[in-house]
Specification:
The chain is α+β, with helices and mostly antiparallel strands. It has one domain. The chain is built from two helices and three strands; from the N terminus they run αβββα. The longest helix has 10 residues. The radius of gyration is 12 Å and the shape is globular.
């Protein structure tokens, strides 16, 4: 199993778009991306911790 490692926000958005997600959209506290009825929140505080 591959190890998890930090990923840059633009790369995360690009990979999610390659998987068919749309967005990111602003809404509430975090931005989010959608695909059909799935929603993925892009948590900025987690991305900052992983730098």
């Amino acid at each position: 199993m591959p190890t998890l490692r930090p990923i840059k926000r633009p790369d995360l958005i690009r990979y999610l778009r390659q998987l068919g997600f749309e967005g990111p959209y602003s809404g509430g506290k975090y931005q989010y991306m959608t695909k059909y009825d799935m929603t993925v929140r892009i948590l900025t505080n987690i991305l900052n911790v992983m730098k």
